[in-house]
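We modelled the chain as a single entity of 190 amino acids. Its sequence is:
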Amino acid sequence: MGDLVVTVCLEEREWREPRIVFTVPLPEREPVFMSTSITDYRKKNFGIVIVDAQKFLRLWRADPYGLHRAEANGTPETWPNDYKYDRAVDGFSHGRENPVPLADVSYGKAIRTSVTYKFLRFCRNERQDEVEYVAFTNGITRTIWLLTQGCVAFPVKCGMSCARELFGAAAAEGTSFHLLGELAEVAPHA
């Protein structure tokens, strides 16, 4: 159980869109399966990044807008209390026959301003830092389930406008960046 390598294969399915299936290893149990369907639109507009779980979590926690702050700052002990966590448990239980969809994320940079004061509100000091972060369009509960299971690397789907930057900031060691269409061409058939 649990090489640190995410494997990929292409499945051509009768009367359905083809999909790419990812085998995601977990340290204490059998691997789980995730997928994304392939359409001409998606081929050109999305990148797939195999993220390092800890780098990804740091970027998620750095989101300056804090839309999902409670979930991002949870822990493997608190995440199972999420109201949709049981849905992820069920979703991942179906195995290769019904893989869980990839999380859909975006990567961005923002300016965070920090203000500090010395001596009773005098001597104001303002500092601006550029912050890199990720935000979710879809897939938070799946992601916290993976993190709870000790997953060290997993695939995410990201729009082309920021996919290469996400790869640079959070890619798992030894992985490559691919457009969805490129991955569909190089993935072995199931």
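As a brief sanity check on the tokenised model: The first strand starts at residue 7 and ends at 11. The first helix runs from residue 40 to 45.
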